[in-house]
Every structure is written in C-alpha cells, then in structure tokens.
Amino acid sequence: MAEAKTAKAAKKPGFFKELLTFLLVIAIILGIASGAIFYLSGKNLDDLLGSRPVAKKETNQPAPVSPVSTGQEVGTNQQSNAVPVSSEGNGATDSAMPAAYPVETAGQPSNVEEQVARTALPTQKGALKGTITWQYNDFVGTKPDVNAKIFLIRKDFDINTITDMEEKLFISIEAAPKGSGLYTAKANGYGNYEIGNVPVGEYYIIVVSGKTHRDIRQPVDEYFTSIFTPYVRNWEDFTLLSLGTNKYEFSLITIEENQTLDFSHDFGYTFY
C-alpha cells in the first residue's frame, strides 16, 4: 500500500510537466496563426488602399485661357481670330477686335500707321559727306565753316508723319526723328561732316553757313521757298530758326547703295 502511494506521487510531477509543455505548444501555434492572420490582413488592407484613387487638392487658380478662341476642337483649322466678348447689361455677344489692330482716335493717325510710315524706307543704304568752307579775307583765304548746319530731307517725306514738337526740335536744335526720312549734321572744326546709313533715294540737302551772312534786305529765294514749303508746317519758324541771317545752299541729290556722295560747298565772303 505504501509503495502504490509512492508511485502515484512520483507520476504526478511528470503529468504537470507534460501539461505545461502541451499548453506552451498550443500557445506557440496560436501565436504563429495570429501573426499570419494579422500579416495577411494588413497586406490585403494595403492592397485595398493602394487601389483607391487619390483625390487631388483643388486650387482656386484660373484655367489657362487661349488668346484666340474659335469654339473648335484641338487640331482643327481656326477660322476666326475674334474673341467672343459678352456685353455687360444686355447679354449680347460681340466680336472683339484682335489685339493686332489698334484702336484709333478720330482725326489722329494710329501708332501703327505712323510706325509703318517711318519704317517704309528702303533697306539699301548709302552715305553722304563733304567739306563746308568760307573766305575769311584775301590774305587768310579759305577757312572751315565750323558749325555749318546740314539738313537732309527725303524727297517723298510727309510732314504728317512727325509731330509738331518733333518738327520744332528738327529745325531748332537739329534733332531728326528716327526713321522719319530726316537727317542732320554739323561741320566740325575742319569743316567736314558725314551722315551714314542713309536709305537710297532722292533727297534735298540744305546747308546753312555758320560763319557767313546774307543780305537780309533780300527775301528768301522764291524757288527755295516753293520747294521746301510743303515740308514744314510753319515756314516763318523754319526761316527764323534754321536760316536766320546766314547764307544757305540747297540742291537735289541721290543717295546710291553702298556709295558715299560728296557734297561740298564754299560760301565765299560774308555780306557783313
């Protein structure tokens, strides 16, 4: 009897050990299964989230507007350059003027017309040069006509292509508007002058002495007046500011391509 109790007591610790081992194995199996399920569940969730479209953040930036709208699909030929504009107050749709066309004011030339008139000169160029002199006296003889003024006016020049102010600057301080067909120069200390890059064509040249004077009791030459009156708005201002009391010389010349024309003149003795 005592031996049976001793054997039962000896088997009891081994039973609990096996039970703990079994529970541990079950826990390990459950842990592995839970991890696998969690991993698979997370992967499926990522796949589901990745397949969803991502919404773009909307901004208040205006959509790009084409400068020319014709109502046609991309790739088709455009038929009109007018942009439909809705008139305020009446709901009507007007055809806007293309940006290339200027808005003109009645009675005034547009900037485009003025620009065309000034840039319509020939592209072929030539040049003009010369020496202006005068006679000091019989003993000294010829001297350079320092500061003699040279005006060059294209024969087909239109006075309406320049403003009143541009004309006044031209005849008073010899400032020629660019691209107008007008040119100016002054004789240097040696009496020499030169005007380059002159478009080919016919020009009137006026040389006004800086050292000699004319008889102011005599009116300006009628032929000179008849030629140059169409090129100025105020003839009295031109004769007063440009000619003054000095001697002058004029002629019709032709500027040729890649040629330098020599126009020189000696004014002789001064009148007084």
Can you describe what's shown?
- The protein is of the alpha+beta class.
- It contains 5 helices and 11 strands.
- Strands 3, 4, 7, 10 and 11 form a 5-stranded mixed beta sheet that branches. A 4-stranded antiparallel beta sheet has the order 6-5-8-9, with no helix packed on it. A two-stranded antiparallel ribbon has the order 1-2.
- Mean pLDDT is 76; it is low at 53-59 and 65-110.
Question: What gyration radius follows from the Cα positions, in whole Å?
Answer: 49 Å
Q: Could you list the spans in which at least 5 consecutive residues all have pLDDT below 50? A: 53-59, 65-110
Overall pLDDT, averaged? 76
What would you call the shape?
rod-shaped
Into which percentage range does the β-strand content fall? 15-25%
How many individual β-strands?
A: 11
Q: Which structural class do you get from the secondary structure elements?
A: alpha+beta
Could you tell me how far the N terminus lies from the C terminus, measured between alpha carbons in angstroms? 172 Å
Largest sheet: 5 strands, mixed
Q: Helical stretch count?
A: 5
Element-by-element helix/strand order: HEEHEEEHEEEHHEEE
Helix residue percentage = 25-40%
Task: From the structure above, extract its key features.
single chain; 272 residues; alpha+beta; 5 helices; 11 strands; rod-shaped
Which helices and strands occur, and which strands form pairs?
Elements: H1 2-50, E1 84-86, E2 93-95, H2 111-119, E3 125-135, E4 142-144, E5 149-154, H3 164-173, E6 182-186, E7 192-199, E8 201-213, H4 222-228, H5 235-243, E9 246-255, E10 260-262, E11 265-266
Parallel strand pairs: 3-10, 3-11
Antiparallel strand pairs: 1-2, 3-4, 3-7, 5-6, 5-8, 8-9
